[in-house]
Inverse folding.
């Protein structure tokens, strides 16, 4: 109901993310925008999530686009359990010709779960949101430490560079979710997205992480919808072209 009220009905219509036809359409759109890789979100303890990821990688083989797995739902699990799930992701997906590698290793991410273990041959990253990512001031890790494996999920403008990564978000609203703490960063007709991209381009990071393609419940989606058409798809393509050229500018 909240999504419908916000006018965020996808141009594709209401869909299942596991639908191969939907996946094919989205892969064409994401590829056309120029993304180098896409993060596939998988709830580690949800068999349907793994099945959808398998379908996604099957369809991905038709494209040059690459993809990496991010495991969710393992927040406070013991390190041995997290390691087991990461090893499962490595075994199932890292051998796919379209899997994304960073620094010569397959990238596997954990969402909001400490990467307090290592898997040989895997580039493990911990992706999370926090008030302050800086070393000595990090509000996510005990002791305020920023670890080399930490990546930022999103941040208000001006975003920081965190271990070579700058996040970009079109807007963020969770005031309708009943959380104890809520935040609201309006899209302002695409203004926030433009400011975030220009900040990221000026910083010239190794990775620009865009949150998100189709996560609607926090109002961060950029895929075409009835509300904004393909506005974000077009501006994303323009900004990514700047990033690939190493230039800055408006779009």
């Amino acid at each position: 109901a909240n999504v419908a009220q916000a006018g965020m009905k996808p141009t594709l219509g209401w869909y299942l993310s596991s639908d191969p036809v939907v996946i094919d359409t989205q892969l064409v759109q994401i590829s056309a925008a120029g993304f180098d890789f896409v993060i596939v979100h998988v709830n580690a303890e949800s068999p349907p999530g793994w099945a959808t990821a398998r379908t996604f990688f099957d369809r991905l083989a038709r494209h040059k686009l690459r993809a990496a797995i991010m495991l969710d739902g393992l927040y406070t699990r013991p390190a041995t359990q997290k390691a087991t799930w990461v090893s499962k992701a490595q075994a199932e997906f890292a051998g796919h010709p379209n899997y994304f590698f960073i620094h010569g290793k397959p990238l596997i991410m954990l969402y909001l779960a400490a990467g307090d273990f290592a898997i040989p041959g895997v580039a493990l990253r911990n992706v999370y949101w926090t008030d302050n990512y800086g070393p000595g001031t990090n509000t996510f890790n005990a002791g305020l430490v920023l670890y080399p494996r930490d990546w930022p999920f999103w941040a208000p403008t001006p975003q920081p560079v965190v271990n070579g990564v700058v996040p970009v978000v079109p807007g963020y609203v969770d005031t309708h979710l009943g959380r104890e703490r809520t935040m609201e960063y309006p899209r302002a007709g695409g203004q926030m997205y433009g400011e975030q991209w220009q900040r990221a381009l000026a910083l010239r990071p190794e990775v620009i992480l865009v949150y998100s393609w189709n996560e609607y419940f926090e109002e961060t989606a950029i895929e075409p919808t009835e509300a904004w058409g393909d506005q974000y798809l077009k501006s994303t393509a323009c900004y990514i072209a700047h990033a690939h050229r190493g230039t800055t500018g408006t779009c």
User: Anything to note?
Assistant: The first strand starts at residue 37 and ends at 43. Helices lie at 2-5, 20-33, 47-60, 79-93, 191-203, 231-245. Residues 79-93 form the longest helix (15 residues).
